Amino acid sequence: MLYILNYLIENKYIDEADTLFFKYCIEVTVFNFFSVISIIIIAMLNNELEIGISFLLTFIAIRTNLGGFHCKTPVKCLMLFPILYSLTGLVKNIITIKLFYYLSFISILLLFLAKPIKNNKEIINDDYNKCKKRLHIALKCIVAINLISFISNIFNSIVIGVDIAVVLSLILYIAKYLEMRN
Question: CA 145 to CA 79: how far, in whole Å?
């Protein structure tokens, strides 16, 4: 990682004053890559690759606009994210798919009421409307997917991945909200 950073500075692609910012960006990118790969590996091991991919796409769409709980370090996130994904998937296996669907639908309704938050405990002011609008578009798409699935009584792996992402997003949002109150 330092090799990449030094290369960028030496070749004048970035200013030396921006070193810390770009170091952070590279670290986040690397850790996010490994987090995504860890979910894909877990999904492949469980023979649920479609669930894993639909989970990732939905989770990223919601979390980038909503915010929620974040680990203190990237390493903790790298360890916790696959565990939370697995535990949420385990809950899906313990209860019936329809009951999990209802849990997801309630989560979607609650997420419509949620206010986007930053990791630093402040409500987003400047980009609040943009985040809220993008979040609502994502949630409306999720509602449409779930309603079509429910009406046609087809609970395929794509819908299951979407529902896991919705439930986990709500759990992490509530965790952050409770953390902010303390």
Answer: 30
